[in-house]
Amino acid sequence: MTYLIDTARRVQLWKDTAGQDLIEYALMAGFVAVAAGAIMPGVATSISTIFSEVASVMTAATATS
Question: How many independent structural domains does the chain possess?
Answer without folding.
Answer: 1
